[in-house]
UniProtKB/TrEMBL annotation:
GO terms for molecular function: hydrolase activity. InterPro entries: AB_hydrolase_fold, BD-FAE-like_dom, GDXG_lipolytic_enzyme. Keywords: Hydrolase. This is Alpha/beta hydrolase fold domain-containing protein. Gene3D superfamilies: alpha/beta hydrolase (3.40.50.1820). It holds the Pfam family BD-FAE. PANTHER family: AB HYDROLASE SUPERFAMILY PROTEIN C4A8.06C. The keyword Cytoplasm does not apply. It comes from Nakamurella alba. Coiled coil: none annotated.
Amino acid sequence: MSGHPRWRRIRRRWPRSCGRCRPRSRWRCVSPDSDAGSRGILALRYPGATAATSAVDVLGPVVAAPTTALLLVHGGSWYRGDRSMYRVQQEKFAAAGHVVGSAGYSLDPGSVLADKLDDLRTGWRVFREHLATAWPTVRTVVVAGGSAGGHLAALLALDPDEQVFPDGVVSVYGPGRLDGWEPDPSLRESIDMLCGVAGVEDPEVVQAARASASPLTWLRSSGRRPPPFLIAQGSDDRTFPPEVVSGWATDLARAGAPVIVRVYPDTGHGFMINGSAAGPALLRDIDTFVREVDLDRSRGPRGS
């Protein structure tokens, strides 16, 4: 993940939306409403959407014919954060040769899991369509998310309503289950809002709703082989404990998914973005994982 001698070239941009960019040009024309145009980011708005969160921010790689792409899904307890949280990570992954998108989703207090997944499905489709046009050499697309984003990334890969699935998933301190454990009060509020049971006092109803929103539940009911997973967590994480982050790795393996679990010592929650000493190691592990998935795909389709 060291800096490529030409990586700064990805910052080049047109001063305005010029209408002259070739569809397969390495330099992407920045849309006027992009909130990150100064960093060479192209904001792809979701069709028909008006919310500011309804977009994927895309940064192209330094290589001319990339074979890999990453779609990042931000965290923030499902109701905070935004797609700009991963700007530094986007630049590092682009410098390593990947096309990198960062997807937004509804943060409205009244939104529930179905709303967020609808947005993420749209972002996933928009990103793939852009890759097919602008970067046709890409053959491997991995979805990666941190915390709540890791939860949503896992659900996208296990979504029974999706037709085209990610080739791999990176869940960084993202929960594999929301039921069967008791989060701290602020996180509990977000989880119950997500599951549509905020204010419900019946514990059985609450636990059932949390279970229905859990990747582990989706895995057990999917009936198909999941893609490869990289599960990463800090040894000292107090937000999502190990049993809900990496505890479902065994179930993934039993379902046929190649699974890698990385535990970073003396590390708490949020180390992907908070400047922790484990951050660079995590980015190297993600980069290696994406390349290994791509190498596996170059050898032919996975067995059923």
